[in-house]
Amino acid sequence: MVENPQGLKTIDGSTWLIEDEAENMKIQYRVDDVLYSEKSPFQHVMVVNSPVFGRMLVLDGIVQTTSLDGHIYNEMITHVPLSIHPNPKRVLIIGGGDCGAAREVAKYSEIEEIDMVEIDELVVKACQEYLPAVSGNLSDPRVNFIFDDGLKHVSKYKDHYDVIIVDSSDPIGPAVQLFEKSFYANIKEALKEDGIMVCQSQSPVFHLNILQQTYGYLHELFPISRVYTAVVPTYPGGMWSFTLGSKKYQEVNAHSFDKETKYVSQDLLQQCFALPAFLKDALSK
Amino acid sequence: MVENPQGLKTIDGSTWLIEDEAENMKIQYRVDDVLYSEKSPFQHVMVVNSPVFGRMLVLDGIVQTTSLDGHIYNEMITHVPLSIHPNPKRVLIIGGGDCGAAREVAKYSEIEEIDMVEIDELVVKACQEYLPAVSGNLSDPRVNFIFDDGLKHVSKYKDHYDVIIVDSSDPIGPAVQLFEKSFYANIKEALKEDGIMVCQSQSPVFHLNILQQTYGYLHELFPISRVYTAVVPTYPGGMWSFTLGSKKYQEVNAHSFDKETKYVSQDLLQQCFALPAFLKDALSK
Fold first, then answer.
1. Neighbours of B258 (CB within 10 A)
2. Which family does this protein fall into (chains A, B) (predicted)?
3. What is the pLDDT of residue A5?
4. How close B40 gets to chain A, by Cα (Å)?
5. Taking chain A, what is the end-to-end CA distance rounded to the nearest angstrom?
6. Which residues of B are catalytic?
7. How does pLDDT run across A162-183, given as a tens digit for each residue?
8. pLDDT above 70 coverage of chain A, percent
């Protein structure tokens, strides 16, 4: 068994990506080809081809998104806030290097500016070239690619954005500060007086403490805070959470969803807020 | 690396259960102890202790249910049909050897008889002794344990049950006939004129063909057929499907759910029918 630092192992002549999950559990994906593999100043960036999930973006050995299910996460992190805000014009995406969130935001013709602030240019390059199922070879002129630190970018703006989407990786490595209260406070400042933010808040099963902390911060900072979930097959445990902070609006516009999507539907936009009993309970503490 | 037929391997001095999923993908669970391991006439039955999921029931090397999340599947397969039927008296569970479905059904005081027909007595014995988090050491006098073939049992009854719950394992090994149309036709006969059946219909992500086939059969056989989903972290892909066939009733009773549960809530009972766009599409073909 030969292993390299990116989690690839050769077992009986086949290549496998072995991902450590939630301690004491590992997922092994058979890998047919490694299409891209580079070390950026921030992390190791890899795109591999797997028979089950198709192409997969792997950062520091952790699967981030795949051809099979990348759309689920990207549709859910974008269409929920954009169906709550009645008139979004300026949208900021922090992270989102796979370009899938920007691609979904670009489906709204009324949006005039989409700023995408990703710290790692190599991620965007790899996904645009090797992961078109997720990035959609995004080339909308309203998208401004800004390769910078999301924290620094947000702190420069006041009363500027209608919707801010925090599409971060896990709270280890380059994304750790994107889970801190001071960051959400800066986001609140950067939003207009009726603005909405959303962030991914990890697995309610394996990282309930992070979801509770995130919800706690947004609950303190915003008049309206809500949690919703989606099922993302490649994330451990399947169930994934998102947390919204909103200054004014809270309900999804009924009967208005008309975008072409694979996972999101009008029903689902409204019903994703129905939480399992254990989760309701955990968030009411 | 030493392997035995039940999927246990010793790697660097630790024991792991290695489960093959959907070809070309494996999940490795660290195992602290093997609490029970016997070969029955039908399959290999094992209960192990794992640090992430607690105790796990493993049949022929495949994880069936765990202390951490067994309640999700069992609550969803029971409370949905029992919240649709206004007055269930006689309930049949086919399979359900972990006793979790019978435990949930027993929460309804108006139910008079709960027949549980499980082909493999060893599964019930193992779960009652080593998996109390799921089985709840079930000892309700209304539960009749019948160790027999579910197909044979069902074909003996006409116009008898209010609700039939098909809680089978995967469509390989002893459960393969529980996915056939003739079996569902017999279930229809065994149900009263306003009866309801439900079955687990596998992962919409990895076994969409089985869900489509099951929904197709129930759609042909019953005036009302509906699909709902839940998130079961230990099942591959997380998202799991259930299919209902009903002779008369279709709506969940609003505002009436009062059982003590960990996953199911009144909201969730109604909203579990909101399907992702790809699934709606796949079922309308």
1. 8
2. Belongs to the spermidine/spermine synthase family.
3. 60
4. 28
5. 46
6. 167
7. 999 999 887 777 778 888 999 9
8. 97
Residue A119 amino acid letter: I
For residue B160 the two structure tokens come to: 């008898």
The yes or no reply on domain B2-66 and CATH 2.30.140.10 is yes
Exactly one of A60, A120, A162, A167 is catalytic; name it: A167
Distance of alpha carbon B236 from alpha carbon B243, whole angstroms: 18
- For the domain made up of B70-283, the CATH class stated in words is alpha beta
Q: What phi, psi does B170 have (nearest 5°)?
A: -65, 155
Residues facing residue A13 across a β-bridge: none
Average pLDDT taken over every residue of chain B: 92
Which residue is associated with the tokens 């801010």? Answer: A164
The minimum CA-CA distance between A21 and chain B, rounded to whole Å, is 10
pLDDT, tens digit, 9 for 90 and up, residues B201-222: 999 988 899 999 999 999 999 9
Annotated binding site of A for S-methyl-5'-thioadenosine: 43, 118, 149-150, 174
Choose the mutation target among B10, B48, B205 for the interface with A, i.e. most A CBs under 10 Å: B205
Burial class (CB in 10 A: 0-12, 13-18, 19+), B227: buried
Sequence spans of domains, chain A: 2-66, 70-283
Q: Beta strand pairing status for A2-3 and A143-146?
A: unpaired
Between β-strands B113-117 and B143-146, what pairing exists: parallel, antiparallel or unpaired?
A: parallel
In this structure, are residues A63 and A19 in contact, taking their beta carbons and an 8 Å threshold? yes
Q: What is the ipTM of this complex?
A: 0.84
Alpha carbons B43 and A185: distance in angstroms, whole number: 57
Please state the φ and ψ torsions of residue B25, each to the nearest 5 degrees: -145, 140
How far apart, in whole angstroms, are the C-alpha atoms of residue A130 and residue A127? 5
